[in-house]
Amino acid sequence: MSTVIYGMLKEERERNLEMQEIQKRKINELRKGSIVVKTISGKKYHYLIYWEDGKTKTEYIGNDKEVIDKIKKEIEKRKYLQGILKRLKLEYKQIGKIVKD
User: Fold this and answer.
1) 60 forms bridges with which residues in the sheet?
2) What is the mean predicted confidence (pLDDT) over 9-15?
3) Rounded to the nearest 5 degrees, what angle is found at the Cα of 10, between the Cα atoms of 29 and 83?
4) CB neighbour list of residue 30: distance below 8 Å, 6 or more residues apart
5) C-alpha 65: how far from its chain's center?
6) Cα(81)–Cα(99) distance, integer angstroms
7) Which residues of 59-85 are buried (b: 16+ CB within 10 A; e: fewer)?
8) pLDDT the model gives residue 3
9) In 10 A of CB 52, how many CB atoms?
10) What is the pLDDT of residue 100?
């Protein structure tokens, strides 16, 4: 294999690792879980439900539409970034099959 191409692949592998770390930091800044609506005595209550330390956690988030929409957007963005991270990991693995150090 050409040393130029091999060098480019090594650089790409390092760039990929940097991008993975950036995505992980962004993901950790966003809320996780999903929003559940419970109806109690005819009134609706919104909760954020997520896993933490192997346990299900429930957090009351109120009924303010702006707050609920903000949390929904964070959850959607987190899922999107998780998809990017998954693709980066796959790419890293594929490059690793070619570049051996």
Assistant:
1) 47
2) 95
3) 30
4) 74, 75, 77, 78, 81
5) 24
6) 26
7) eebeeeeeebeebeebbeebeebeeeb
8) 86
9) 9
10) 79
User: What was the pLDDT predicted at 1?
Assistant: 58
State the greatest distance between any 2 C-alpha atoms of the chain, in Å, as a whole number. Answer: 71
Determine whether 42 is exposed, middle or buried from the number of CB atoms within 10 Å of its CB (0-12, 13-18, 19+). exposed
- Strand-pairing partners, residue 36, are 47
Distances from the Cα of 4 to the Cαs of 1, 7, 11, 92, 101, in angstroms?
9, 5, 11, 19, 16
pLDDT tens, position by position, 23-80: 999 999 999 999 999 999 999 999 999 999 999 999 999 999 999 999 999 999 999 9
Distance between CA atoms of residues 24 and 78, nearest Å: 10
pLDDT reading at 99 higher than 70: yes
Read off the tokens for 100.
């051996």
